[in-house]
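Two records follow; treat each independently.
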Amino acid sequence: MPGTNRSRPECNIASVTANSEEHHMSGEADKVGGRLKQAAGDLTGDDDLKNEGERDEAAGKVKDTVDDAKDKVNDAVDGIRDKLS
């Protein structure tokens, strides 16, 4: 708006990086936990546990894919920001 002095919000890169790493760990944890549930389901003959493990592993893969995409977008934004500086 004309006549107003709006400053750009500061971006805390350290918190963005830490948050991204935390999400990557979450995806990995889901994948590992899912594989463990699948193995336990196989050993005990518990199809419900095996299916839950498959869903958990798939959810972990999706989280990792989304986090990788976010990282690429952040890298592109940083590259543009560097060119404009």
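The next record belongs to a different protein.
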Amino acid sequence: MRIELYKVKIRRIHNRRASHPPLKPRDLILRSAEAVEKHIEKMGLNLEGPNSIKEEVLPGTYKLLMLGDKEFPNPWHVDIFKCNYT
């Protein structure tokens, strides 16, 4: 029990200090397929997209646009993004 509480405390300290990449509206990103689908095939794609950022809702949380300027219904957290530098 003590070890688990220690791990939770260390994880919170680490996550507080870890920084996310600075993202601006219209930046292209790739989303993790694990966050979208519950089951991914063994040889399936790990990332899906590209999508663009519409706006920042909260620090680290963004509204996304599909390539046809259709908006996703829910905001997404930066932990599931990878920047697309193409």
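Discussion point: Helices lie at 2-17, 33-36. How would you locate this feature using only the token line?
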